[in-house]
Each structure stands twice: as structure tokens, then as C-alpha cells.
Design goal:
The chain is of the alpha/beta class and 389 residues long. Helix content is 31%, strand content 18%. The strands form 3 sheets. A 6-stranded mixed β-sheet has the order 8-11-10-9-12-13. Strands 2-1-3-6-7 form a 5-stranded parallel β-sheet, sandwiched between helices. A two-stranded antiparallel sheet has the order 4-5. The radius of gyration is 25 Å and the shape is elongated. The structure holds flavin mononucleotide. Flavin mononucleotide binds next to helix 1.
């Protein structure tokens, strides 16, 4: 018999939410592995607040006084093998909407207090202890630390009832809503799809897929610069990066100290734009544990110098010269690099013809096709075919 999954998406943005952008590939992967899935959007439901009357425990056991959309949802919850709780992070927890749904699951437990392992809790009314739980969340900030309260809530629930089997927690989730970044961050959604497949075929998300799903889209500096530049409120002056980061902690490595992080832009009209966009096109899985500094010296302008730092599965772009010796330096006229970045010319051919030259570890240049995913706008190679989601 097929495994049945019910996903409850608590984002007020419903079907257009960042949460759904991660949830749906997960469910497609699960469906392709043989599961039957359904998504319920909390925003579509008429669900009253729990009023704490305890009627569902005392007067009408298992039945709430409110005859809204919750009884039908409880029926669904009772009859599936897996529940996916999906929510954006709102004030470090789940949305009020999803919390309201969760509170109204009170009829599914009995009032008695019993010892369950180390702690006490309520017994399940319908004894479906084998039901599994998955948590999918995304947050606006880039630090994973913000998920701690949500995870704690689920881990306590888990000890009480069933196990929180897998989590997908995505930072800088608003990047999922940026059309220009769609191609570049599709690796994340591919991993969510794999996670869905693995969850059904192997009973859990593999360590490798989980590791991919806990990678950030960009580095902290790039994120702060991009995020602050994206808010354009009338009458407010955006913070400088120095102000936002705090002087002391500005740039974490001595290598990049005093160098200006490049902020990706929507247009690709200069070589600076192209290099600024490369961290978005970066494929962390392809990089593995590569640690490299890649310098660009633009030969037709006197002092245009940029570099990329690749480390810990992340890539950042800077203007200027890195303090340490680059692993590879690419000397190129601006137009040559822009043409081959957008696929107008073939990178290898341009190299053979001497249109640009490199110093240092040429192996890194050879890896570019894999390290940087090509949007039409970006790198040397074409994308390698898209997974069905
Ligand atoms: C009211 C509100 C509270 C939020 N609280 C947090 C928060 O505590 N931490 C965080 O990193 N992001 C927070 N965010 C940002 C959202 O998590 C982020 O925008 C997310 O991508 C929205 O996902 P969605 O499209 O699935 O709703 C908050 C957003 C709103 C509107």
C-alpha cells in the first residue's frame, strides 16, 4: 500500500510562498517514489482558535465544539502515515495560522498524563504511533540559529508523541522568490526533490542530501549587502555595509579585509555585474571541499580587479585584490569574459585563441563548467538539463 503524506502549509502566502517552493519538489520526489500526497493550505481553511474549553476531552471525547474545517482536517491527519508541517519562520516559530491548526489537534490526544520515556505526556487517542513527522521551514535571515526555538518545539512534541524524522530548514528564503536567482539556486530545489524520494524509498533523507539542504545560498557578507540593498523604503537611507556588519566583525577573513563585497544585480551589463553574479551561480556540491581564490584582472581597464573566494562550500565575490596569493588569475578584456559568460563565445576556444590568459592552477578553470551553473546570463557552459519538479 502506498505511503500517504499530508502536508500542511502554514504560510499566509499559500501557493506562492517560499515554503511551497521547497515543499512541492519534496512532495513530487515522494510521489515519484510511490507515495500519495496532499497539500492543505492553512490560509484556505476556516479554523477557529481553540478556546480551551476541554469539551473534546470531557464532554464529547475526541470531538471539538467547533464545526469548522478542522474536523475534516483531523480526519485526514489521523489517516496518513506522514505529516509534513511546513511554515515560514515568524518570530522564531511557526506562523500563528499553523500554530492554530496544531492547537486544534487537541482532540487527537487523551487528557490523561502518562510517562513516555523520560518525560510525561498525553497518550494518543488513536494510537497511530508509527506516524512520521517532517518539518519544512524557511526564514528570512541567513543564520540557522534562528530555527532553534521551532526545532525545540518539534523535538519536545517528538518525545511526547511521534518522531520528528526529518527537517528541511532553508535560510535566506526570500531568495527563492527572486526570479533572477531561479536558475542559480535550483540546486536547492533539486535536493528537496531528492529528499522526498529518499524519505519514501529509504525512510529518511540521506546525510548527503541533508547536508546540501543545510547550505546557504550566499555568504553572510553577500547576504547582508543584498538584503539591505533590497529594502528601498521612501525617506530612509540604507545602511552601509560597515554599519550593518559592525566595524569589528566586518569581513571574517584577513584575506578579504578592506575589500568590497560585490552585490549581485539583476542586470549583466558590465564585467563587475557578471562577477558579482557568480556566487549565485555557484554549485556547492560540485565544489566539495575546494578552497580557492580566483582573481580577475580586467586588461582593458587600468585598475579593475576582482576576486572570488571559494571555501566551505560557499563562494563570495569581491572588488580589489585578495591579501593572499590567488590560486588562479584570469587576465581578460571585459568584453571577452562577458561574452563567454553569457554563452556567446565558447570558453575553451577563446582560451585556445589567446583571447584571455590564465596564471596558476589551470585545473580550477577546467572546473568552471561544474562550479558555476549557467543561466543564459552567467557562465561558460549550458545547464545540464533540469530535473522534473
Ligand atoms: C511577521 C513576520 C515575522 C518574521 N519573523 C522572522 C524571524 O523570526 N526570523 C527570520 O529569519 N525571518 C522572519 N521572517 C521572514 C520570513 O520567514 C521570510 O520572509 C520567509 O521567506 C517567508 O516565507 P513564505 O513565503 O513561505 O511565507 C518574518 C516575516 C514576517 C512577515
Amino acid at each position: 500500500m502506498s505511503i500517504k503524506i499530508l502536508a500542511i502549509n502554514g504560510s499566509p502566502r499559500g501557493r506562492t510562498s517560499n515554503t511551497d517552493k521547497i515543499l512541492q519538489p519534496f512532495l513530487v520526489g515522494a510521489t515519484e517514489a510511490g507515495a500519495v500526497t496532499e497539500t492543505v493550505y492553512a490560509i484556505d481553511l476556516d479554523i477557529h482558535d481553540c478556546t480551551g474549553c476541554f469539551s473534546c476531552w470531557k464532554k464529547t471525547p475526541g470531538k471539538c465544539i467547533f464545526n469548522d474545517d478542522m474536523p475534516a482536517l483531523l480526519e485526514k491527519i489521523r489517516n496518513v502515515d506522514v505529516i509534513v508541517w511546513a511554515t515560514p519562520l515568524y518570530y522564531y516559530g511557526m506562523t500563528a495560522r499553523l500554530q492554530r491548526v496544531m492547537e486544534r489537534t487537541l482532540p487527537l490526544v487523551m487528557p490523561y498524563i502518562v510517562k513516555k520515556g523520560e518525560h510525561f505526556g498525553h497518550p494518543l487517542r488513536y494510537q497511530n504511533y508509527s506516524q512520521k513527522t517532517v518539518l519544512i521551514s524557511n526564514c528570512g535571515f541567513i543564520e540557522r540559529y534562528y530555527f532553534e526555538a521551532l526545532l525545540k518545539q518539534f523535538s519536545i512534541l517528538d518525545r511526547q508523541e511521534r518522531s520528528l524524522d526529518n527537517t528541511i530548514l532553508c535560510t535566506a528564503g526570500e531568495m527563492l522568490a527572486v526570479p533572477e536567482a531561479e536558475q542559480q539556486i535550483s540546486w536547492y530545489l533539486d535536493a528537496a526533490y531528492e529528499a522526498g524520494k529518499e524519505f519514501i524509498t529509504a525512510g529518511k533523507i540521506s546525510t548527503q542530501t541533508a547536508a546540501t539542504l543545510s547550505k546557504d545560498f550566499v555568504t553572510l557578507e553577500t547576504f547582508v549587502a543584498m538584503a539591505n540593498a533590497s529594502w528601498n523604503a521612501p525617506g530612509e537611507t540604507p545602511l552601509t555595509l560597515d554599519e550593518a556588519m559592525g566595524r569589528e566583525s566586518l569581513y571574517t577573513t584577513s584575506d578579504t579585509k578592506h575589500c568590497e563585497p560585490l552585490i549581485p544585480t539583476a542586470q549583466m551589463t558590465t564585467i563587475r555585474d557578471v562577477i558579482a553574479g557568480m556566487p549565485l551561480a555557484f554549485q556547492p556540491q560540485a565544489a566539495g571541499n575546494l578552497k580557492a581564490t580566483i582573481a580577475f584582472y580586467v586588461t582593458d581597464t587600468a585598475d579593475e580587479k576582482y576576486f572570488l573566494k571559494i571555501e566551505d562550500g560557499q563562494c563570495s565575490a569581491f572588488a580589489g585584490v585578495a591579501a593572499s596569493e590567488p590560486d588562479i588569475t584570469i587576465h581578460t578584456p571585459a568584453q571577452v569574459w562577458m561574452d563567454l559568460s553569457c554563452g556567446k563565445t565558447d570558453g575553451q576556444q577563446a582560451f585556445m585563441e589567446g583571447q584571455y590568459r590564465v596564471e596558476g592552477n589551470i585545473q580550477i578553470l577546467m572546473m568552471f563548467n561544474k562550479l558555476f551553473k549557467s543561466a543564459d546570463t552567467m557562465m561558460i557552459s549550458q545547464p545540464t538539463g533540469k530535473k522534473k519538479r
